[in-house]
Design a protein that fits this description.
Blueprint: H1 2-6, H2 11-46, H3 49-52, H4 57-63, H5 68-83, H6 86-92, H7 98-104, H8 113-116, H9 125-132, H10 156-170, H11 178-193, H12 195-227, E1 232-238, E2 241-248, E3 251-258, H13 273-278, H14 297-307, E4 327-331, E5 346-350, H15 351-361, H16 371-374
Antiparallel strand pairs: 1-2, 2-3, 4-5
Helix pairs in contact: 2-5, 5-7, 7-9, 10-11, 12-14
Length: 382
C-alpha cells in the first residue's frame, strides 16, 4: 500500500516507504514473539521453574534474557489471560498493550470486564489508568474526575528538600501531605512562568485599565458639558462604547465614546489593546536589512490567548498539532522578508514545526531535514 503510494516519488521517498514496510513486518513478528513468550512464562510458572533452578525470580528473569520489569509484566498478563480469555484476542489484534493491562489489573473483575476492557483499547497507559479509576468492581462508571497514580523516585537530598517544602507550607497552619506539597509547588510554578496565565493576567489588567479610562472620560466630558452650559447628562454603555445623551438649552444630542478612548485628546481616539496589537505596521523592502526588536509583551499575550497556548500547525488532513510544549512565536511573513511584530502576523508553533516552516521558507530541500516526521501534526506533542 505504501509502496504504491510513493512509487511515483522515487529516490529517497521510495526508500523511506520500503523501510516503513520492513519495520511494520518486523514489529508484527515481534508482537507474535511476545505473545509466545507470555504463554511460555505461564507454563514455566506452573512448573516452578525458578525454584527448581534454585534462582530468585529476578535472577531467573536475567537467565531468560529478560529485564525484571519485562518478566513480571509478562507473567502478570499471562495470569490475566487465564481468567479473562478476552485479553488474548485483544493482544492478538493489537488493540491494547501489556502496560495498559498491568495498569488495570487491580481493578479488573468478572463483573466489570465488559465495561473496563473495551475502555482501554487504543489508549495510552495514563488514559487507561484514569478510566479504570472510575470503574467500580460491579461495572458501574462513577461520575467523578479520573485519578492518575504518580510514583516519584528521589535521592536522600531531594527528599530532604521535599521535607523542607512541607515545613514551609505547614507555616500556613496545617501539616500538608506530600501530594499537597507537590501540587502547591506546581501551582506556584505555573502562576509564575506559564505564558497562558501571564497573558490572562495581562488581559485582565488592561481591561481594568480600559474601564477606568472610560469612567474617567465620562467624568471629564460631564464636567466639560457642565462648564459649557449643558443642563443634563445621561450615560449608558452598549457593546463596549459609552453613549452620552446631552440635554442643553438648544436641544439634545448624543456623543459616542469608544472603549478605551481618550475623549479630550485632540489627536484622536486611543484604541483598545487588542486592536492596537493587531494594527499592521509599515513594512520595509524585503532586501533591506533592519534590526529586530523584541516583540512587545502585550502582543505576545494577545497571541497566546488567541491561539490558546497550542501549536497552530495543521497537516494536509486539517488536524492541528496538539503540542503545548516547547512553544515558540512564529512570523507568518518572516521578519527577514519584511514581516512585522503585529499579532496578525504572529502565530504559535512548537519548536519542530517552527523549524520546519523556517527551512521551507528559506528554500532547503527534503534531504536537509526529516520531512515526513516533522509534517505529522502532534508528532512531538505527546
Amino acid at each position: 500500500m505504501l509502496a504504491h503510494k510513493y512509487e511515483e516519488l522515487g529516490g529517497e521517498m521510495k526508500r523511506l516507504a520500503d523501510l516503513v514496510i520492513e519495520a511494520r513486518r518486523l514489529h508484527a513478528q515481534e508482537h507474535n514473539l511476545v505473545l509466545q513468550s507470555i504463554r511460555l512464562l505461564v507454563q514455566l510458572g506452573n512448573l516452578n521453574a525458578a525454584v527448581n533452578h534454585r534462582m530468585s525470580p529476578e535472577k531467573f528473569a536475567q537467565y531468560l534474557g529478560l529485564s525484571v520489569d519485562q518478566y513480571y509484566k509478562r507473567k502478570r498478563v499471562g495470569q490475566m489471560m487465564r481468567f479473562f480469555p478476552e485479553i488474548t484476542g485483544m493482544l492478538e489484534r493489537a488493540e491494547t498493550t501489556l502496560s495498559n493491562l498491568v495498569a488495570i489489573a487491580p481493578k479488573l473483575t468478572q463483573a466489570n470486564k465488559e465495561t473496563l476492557l473495551p475502555g482501554i483499547k487504543g489508549v495510552t497507559k495514563r488514559e487507561a489508568e484514569g478510566f479504570a479509576s472510575r470503574i467500580t468492581p460491579d461495572g458501574q462508571i462513577l461520575d467523578r474526575e479520573e485519578t492518575i497514580q504518580l510514583t516519584l523516585t528521589l535521592t536522600k537530598s531531594q527528599f530532604a528538600q521535599l521535607d523542607r517544602a512541607k515545613e514551609v507550607v505547614a507555616a500556613c497552619g496545617h501539616n500538608p501531605s506530600n501530594e499537597q506539597v507537590v501540587l502547591k509547588a506546581v501551582d506556584d510554578l505555573l502562576t509564575k512562568r506559564d505564558p497562558m496565565q501571564k497573558a490572562a493576567r495581562a488581559m485582565a489588567r488592561l481591561d481594568q485599565k480600559a474601564r477606568l479610562e472610560v469612567n474617567s472620560s465620562e467624568s471629564r466630558v460631564a464636567q466639560a458639558l457642565t462648564d459649557s452650559g449643558a443642563i443634563g447628562l445621561e450615560a449608558s454603555t452598549r457593546s463596549g462604547a459609552v453613549g452620552l445623551q446631552v440635554l442643553t438649552s438648544s436641544g439634545a444630542g448624543t456623543i459616542s465614546i469608544a472603549k478605551g478612548q481618550t475623549i479630550l485628546d485632540p489627536t484622536g481616539a486611543r484604541t483598545s489593546w487588542v486592536a492596537e496589537c493587531n494594527q499592521p505596521k509599515s513594512r520595509l523592502p524585503q532586501d533591506q536589512q533592519r534590526p529586530r526588536p523584541a516583540i512587545a509583551a502585550k502582543v505576545k499575550h494577545a497571541v497566546y490567548i488567541r491561539d490558546q497556548g497550542q501549536c497552530t500547525f495543521a497537516g494536509a488532513d486539517g488536524r492541528r498539532c496538539s503540542s503545548k510544549g516547547m512553544i515558540e512565536i512564529d512570523h507568518k511573513t518572516m521578519w527577514c522578508r519584511g514581516g512585522d511584530h503585529s499579532a496578525e502576523n504572529l502565530q504559535l508553533r512548537c519548536r519542530m514545526h517552527n523549524q520546519l516552516t523556517a527551512k521551507k521558507e528559506l528554500g532547503l530541500t527534503s534531504d536537509d531535514y526529516v520531512k515526513t516526521a516533522w509534517q505529522r501534526p502532534g508528532a512531538f506533542g505527546r
